[in-house]
Amino acid sequence: MPVMETENSNTRRAEEFKQLANEAFKGHKYSQAIDLYTQAIKLNSENAVYWANRAFAHTKLEEYGSAIQDATRAIETDPKYSKGYYRRGAAYLAMGKFKDALKDFQQVKKLCPNDPDATKKLKECEKAVMKLKFEEAISVPESQRCSVADSIDYHTVEVEPQYTGARIEGDVVTLDFVKKMLDDFKNQKNLHKRYAYQVVLQTRDMLRALPSLVDIVVPEGKHFTVCGDVHGQFYDLLNIFELNGLPSEDNPYLFNGDFVDRGSFSLEVILTLFAFKCMCPSAIYLARGNHESKSMNKIYGFEGEVRSKLSETFVELFAEVFCCLPLAHVINGKVFVVHGGLFSVDGVKLSDIRAIDRFCEPPEEGLMCELLWSDPQPQPGRGPSKRGVGLSFGADITKRFLQENNLDLVVRSHEVKDEGYEIEHDGKLITVFSAPNYCDQMGNKGAFIRFEAPDMKPNIVTFSAVPHPDVKPMAYANNFLRMFS
C-alpha cells in the first residue's frame, strides 16, 4: 500500500479510536478512555488533541503526574494549542502547584485573549497565588509554632441550654454517646464544639503515644477488618457498620487513611472514627493517608468544611492531630498495611519505618512520602509515579520487601478500583478502597477485608453506594479548583 494511503488509513483509525475514547470518557470509564486515546496516539502521535484528551482522563483518575506529561506532549506537538496549557495548568493546580499553574493559564490567556472564561480563570489563579504568597509571608516556622491543642480547655466551653444533640457526661466517651452522635449526623445536625474538642483532643493524646509503625495482635479465633479510603462519604461509612457491625473490642477495624476530602461529610467521618477510638482504643486503628495533610485539605474540601461547620481553630487542631497518625500497621507479624505503598530503595526494614519522625506535614520525598503516595505497577522494577509524587513499584519490589521482613502480604489503599479492591503482584498485594461511587460519579464498588486468626487469609467483602443528602462532593472545596474539575 502506498505511504500516503497508509497515513490516511492510520489517521482515520486514530479518529475512530478518539471517538470511542470520548464516549468512554462521557460514561466515566476513564481507564478505558486512556487505553483508547493511547491507541489513537500510536496511530497518529502528531495530533495534540489526543495527548490533551488523555491528560484530562488521567486528571479524572487523580494521575496528575501522567496528566502533566501528556499535556506537555500536546504543547510540544502544537505550541498554539491552548487546551494543552489548560490541561497542564489544571493538573498543576490539583497538586497544589499554583505558581506552575499560573504560568500555564497566562499562556491560555495569551492564546485566547478574547475568551471570557480564560480571563476569569486567570484572575482566580492570580488570586490564589497572591493568597499563597501572603500565607507564606505571615507563616511561623514549624520549630517556633505553639501547639493549638495545648491552648484549648474544652471544660470551659459553654453548652447552650437549647442544644439537644449528643452529650458526653464527664470525661468518658460511651457507646450511647457515639450512637446518639451518629443519629444526629444522619439528620445533618452538628456536634457541639465542646464535645468535638473533647473527642479530637482525647484522640490526639492516644495517637501521640503510638509508634510510627503499630503492631496489632489478633487472637486465635478472632477477626479483624481493614477498610480503605472513605473520603468523607459518611453514609457509606454507616453502611460498612451496618454490614460488618460497629467497632468494638471483639469487632476491631483499621481505617487505612484518606478519611477526609472530596466527600462533603468529612467532618462527620473523622469525628465518628475519633469517637470510636476514644470509646475503645483497641476497637479502631487509624493510619495516615496522603489526604491527612494541610496542602490536600486546603484544596479538596476538608478545611472549608471544618471552617463552615465548626471554626478556624478546629482547622489548625485537625492539622496538628493528623501529624500524630501512625504511618503503617503490621497485623500478627504477617500483614503489612499502609496507605500508599513501598519504597524507592531496597532494604527498608520495619525498624526503619518505626524510626520515622512522623510529627510533621508529609515531605515531598523519602520513606514517609513514599508510604503515603506510592502505587503498584504491573511491570517489574520501579518507575515514575503517575501522580507526580512518590513512585510506582513492581511485583519484584513487593516480593523482596516481604521476604526481607518475614511478611506474607501488603494491603494498601489510595486508588479507586472498579470492584472496590484489586489483587496484584502474584497475590502478594491487595488494594482496598472503601468509597463506593467515588465523588458520586465513578460507579465503583467499595470493599473491606476481614482477616480471621490464626490463618489470616483475606476475605474480601464488596458493597455498593447508598443514598446521601443532596450535598455534592467537593461542596466545600477550593472554589478555584472546582472551576477546573
UniProtKB/TrEMBL annotation:
Record key words, sorted: Cytoplasm, Endoplasmic reticulum, Hydrolase, Manganese, Membrane, Metal-binding, Nucleus, Protein phosphatase, Repeat, TPR repeat, Transmembrane, Transmembrane helix
Metal-binding listed as a keyword: yes
InterPro entries, per the entry: Calcineurin-like_PHP (IPR004843), Metallo-depent_PP-like (IPR029052), PP5_C (IPR041753), PPP_dom (IPR013235), PPP_phosphatase (IPR051134), Ser/Thr-sp_prot-phosphatase (IPR006186), TPR-like_helical_dom_sf (IPR011990), TPR_rpt (IPR019734)
Residue positions of the active site: 291 (proton donor/acceptor)
Domain called Serine/threonine specific protein phosphatases: residue spans: 191-467
Family, per entry: Belongs to the PPP phosphatase family. PP-5 (PP-T) subfamily.
Protein name, as recorded: Serine/threonine-protein phosphatase 5
Organism per entry: Nicotiana sylvestris
Gene label: LOC104217614
